[in-house]
Design brief:
- This protein has 385 residues and is of the alpha+beta class.
- It is 16% helix and 41% strand.
- Strands 5, 6, 9, 10, 24, 25, 26 and 27 form an eight-stranded antiparallel β-sheet that branches.
Length: 385
């Protein structure tokens, strides 16, 4: 009877500790990357009751939830993100709540540890914005023209042509086409002037009787100078002998227009996003894009043996048990940008576990009460009289 008393007491302790595990699971049901645990009971030898032998980690993935934050990432499949603390120790997590700090370094928003990328040589390094904050200016080198120059018209002007110099400054130019048929049939003189009205270059266009450009008259070179720096620019009018580009066809009006083909000012980042390979993509303006570093992912031979620190970080994992790689390679899953993996807690399972724990606790308590009553009855039966 005394042993039954102690056995039921061990049951009370065991179910109480198991309820602690369930309560922690439920409390973290909205914690990104959290992994639930299950308590394991073990019989104490020779019918001496029970005890908690340990806790098992649930390794199934949680649901993915879109956040709209471009630096939030999740892994759809196998893999943990790699973090590095200030002392150089590595940690691993499924909770991709990342952000850029004041120095432009990608960090975990909770632990403040740096998020690691893996370069082509297999080295881990932090992800920094420093080299990608701006795109340098590019000077304009070509203006393309297309449309018709009517043989019967005297002049035609194309205005609003904006060129960029090597420093990214913009400069407006105007191109004037003057019919030169009095000197040379089917020809036009081209004059280029800057925003001050100063002529900076020009040339001649000649057309065949069919209205196509003659050979040798498909382009005109300009030698511009900005802030003492020479900048050659080509005026491109199309392919001679064809009707692609600029033509001179009778019966049509003047429709020639020009487009600056290249060049830009200094551009800043307008958008960042991680693609499914874990590569950080930078957008500048509407057309320019650059690729940054690629997120490192880690996998482990047995996730169930890992120890979660704070429910979301794996710390003190042996390098021998770990392999590093990239998303969509070597068995790793794909990266989902703008998303977070939530906890893998199933409330239905937790409620079922709570009912089992409650019934077990009640039964152990009842056994203790019965044992106490039997002991008391035994004492009463041994009293004198």
């Amino acid at each position: 009877m005394f042993q039954a008393l102690f056995n039921s007491l061990s049951g009370l302790f065991g179910f109480s500790r198991s309820l602690d595990t369930v309560s922690n699971n439920v409390a973290n049901m909205n914690t990104p990357g959290f992994r639930g645990r299950d308590s394991f009971f073990q019989n104490v030898g020779r019918q001496h009751g029970t005890r908690i032998a340990g806790e098992g980690l649930r390794t199934n993935a949680g649901d993915l939830r879109q956040t709209g934050n471009p630096t939030d990432v999740a892994v759809d499949g196998t893999g943990f993100f790699v973090l590095r603390d200030g002392s150089g120790q590595l940690h691993y997590t499924r909770a991709g709540q990342f952000m850029f700090d004041d120095d432009g370094i990608l960090i975990d928003s909770v632990s403040r540890f740096q998020v690691m990328a893996l370069d082509t040589a297999g080295n881990l390094q932090p992800i920094s914005l420093e080299a990608y904050r701006t795109l340098p200016a590019e000077p304009s080198t070509r203006i393309t023209f297309s449309g018709n120059l009517a043989p019967a018209e005297t002049t035609h002007k194309v205005e609003g042509l904006t060129l960029f110099d090597a420093a990214g400054k913009s400069h407006a130019f105007k191109v004037t086409f003057t019919n030169n048929k009095a000197v040379t049939p089917n020809s036009f003189l081209v004059k280029v002037t800057d925003e001050n009205g100063t002529e900076v270059g020009g040339g001649e266009l000649r057309f065949s009787v069919s209205g196509a450009l003659e050979a040798g008259y498909g382009s005109i070179p300009l030698e511009l100078k900005f802030d003492g720096v020479d900048q050659p620019v080509e005026l491109s009018f199309g392919t001679p002998g064809t009707f692609q580009g600029t033509t001179s066809l009778a019966g049509l009006s003047n429709t020639v227009a020009g487009t600056v083909a290249d060049g830009r000012s200094v551009l800043g980042i307008t958008q960042i996003a991680f693609d499914e390979k874990g590569v950080l993509q930078f957008s500048y303006g509407s057309r320019e894009k650059r690729e940054g570093l690629r997120l490192a992912l880690a996998s482990f031979a047995s996730e169930s043996t890992l120890d979660l620190n704070g429910g979301r970080l794996i710390s003190n994992a042996d390098a021998q048990r770990r392999s590093l790689g990239h998303a969509l390679g070597g068995g790793f899953g794909k990266v989902m940008g703008g998303s977070l993996e939530m906890s893998n807690i199933d409330l239905t399972q937790e409620f079922a576990d709570m009912l089992i724990i409650q019934r077990g606790y009640q039964a152990s308590s009842r056994v203790m009460s019965v044992s106490n009553e039997m002991i008391e009855q035994l004492y009463n039966s041994t009293r004198g009289g």
